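<purpose> Linking amino acid order to shape
<body> The protein record starts here
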Amino acid sequence: MSFYSRHRHNIQLAAVLLTVLAAVSHRWLPLKTYEITGSKGHTQLNLYSGKGYEYGEEADWVDKDAMKMRCTITPASEKTACGLDIAFYEWPKWENGINLHNYDTVHLDIDYQGSASKIRFYARNFHPDYSNVGDFNSTKYNTINLRTRDLTQPVDVPLSALVVADWWLDQFDIPLAQSHLDFSNITGMGFDFGSPIPYGEHTIHFKKIVFKGHYISSASWYLIIMSIWMLTIVVKTVRRLIYLREKNRRYLQRVSMLEADKNQLQNKAAKFEELSTTDSLTGAYNRFGIDRIITNLFEQRALMLPLTIIIADIDHFKRINDTEGHAVGDKVLSKLGRTILANIRENDFLGRWGGEEFIIICTHTDAQHGFLLAEKLRLLIEGTQFELENSTNSPRLNQQLHPQLHPQLKVTASFGVGEVQAGETFTETFNRADSALYEAKKQGRNCTVLAQHTNV
C-alpha cells in the first residue's frame, strides 16, 4: 500500500487546510511599491504660493534634495496659498502620467511643524473621457484632508479613502459614470493647506511617499487557487488511468528493470573507482587525476594563460629509503606533499608524477612568478624537520651508539620551472621543465632552475 493510500484522508485534510490558509493569506503576500521620495518616481518638484509657481517669501525650500519646504504666511500675503506639486509628466506631453491603478495605499512619512490642523493630499488624473489637453484643471481631482495630528508618525492612507472633489465635478459637469476615483494616469500629485492658512511659519519635511499594492489582486489570487485544485483533480485522474493501464506491464518488466539497475550500479561503481584521483599518501592528485587536469587546462589554455609547470624531485630519495627504510620514505613523501599543498593557491594543482617526483600546474602564473613559488617551496622543504621514530627498524639508528629520542632527517628538493609558450603542447613544456630539473641536479641539487624559452 502506497504512502498516499495509507494517509489519504490526512493528505486531503491538509490540502483543504492549506487552501483555506492560502485564501486568507492574500493580505500578507509581498507588496509591490512605487516610491516617489527624494529623486525617485517624479520628474519635477514645484512649490507654489498665492502668486502661482513664482514663489518667494511665501513658499521656499529648506532642503530641496530632502524634500523639505517652508511656507511663511503673513497678513501681507495677497493670497493665502502654499503647497508642493510633484509632476510625473515630461513637457509638453503633460497628459502622459503614471499608472497607480493597481496600488491600494500610499505610505506617508511627513514631519510637519506649524499651527495648521489639516494638510490636503491630492492626485490629478488625466483621461480623455473627461479631461482636456488644453486645460490643466480638467484632470480629475482625487483628494483627502489629513489631520496634522495623525501625521506625527508614518501613516498608510487607503487610496479608496480619497474622494473626487465636488468643485471639480460641478465645474466640468461630470456625469455619474465618470465621477468615481481614477488613478490610471496620474500626471501630478501634491500637498497643500487649502484655505485659509494660519499665519506664521509652516515647515513640512516629506521623508517618504510610497505607494503600495499587491502584485496579484484578490480575485486573481482566488482564481489561481481554484485553478490549482482543478489542475490537481485532472492530473490525479490522468495518473490513475495511466497507472491502471501500465500496471500489468510494470509487473512483467520488474525483473528486467532490477537487472538493469544492478548493471547500472556496477557501471557507476566502476566509474567512481576509475575517477578516484587522489594519492592517499601525499594528498596530491595521482597520475590519472593530474593527467585529466592537464588535459582540461590545455583544452582551455586561453583562459588560463600565463600557465607555468613546476617539477619537483626529492634529492637522494633512494638513499633515504635505503638508509631509513620505506616507512620513513613514505612519511617524507606525505609531509612534503602536504607542505606543498598548504603553500600553493586554490587554482594551482599538485600531482604526484612518479615515486618521489611531483608536478605543480600554476594557472595565471608566468615563469618569473613560477620561479619565485618554486624557490619558496624549496626553502620551506629545506627548513622542514622530518622527525623519525626511535625504532630499531631504521638501519641508520641501529648504527648509532646513542640514538636520539626524536632524531630528525633533513630533506631537500630540486625544482625545474617552465612557462607554456604559444602553440606549445604539454609534453613540450614538460620536457623543458624536466631538462631544467636535470640541470638543477647537475648544479648540486637543492636549487631551482628556470627552463629556457624555445626559439619560435
Observations:
- The chain has a mean pLDDT of 85.
- The two ends are 75 Å apart (CA to CA).
- The chain has three domains: 31-215, 229-275, 287-450.
- The chain is about 35% helix and 25% strand.
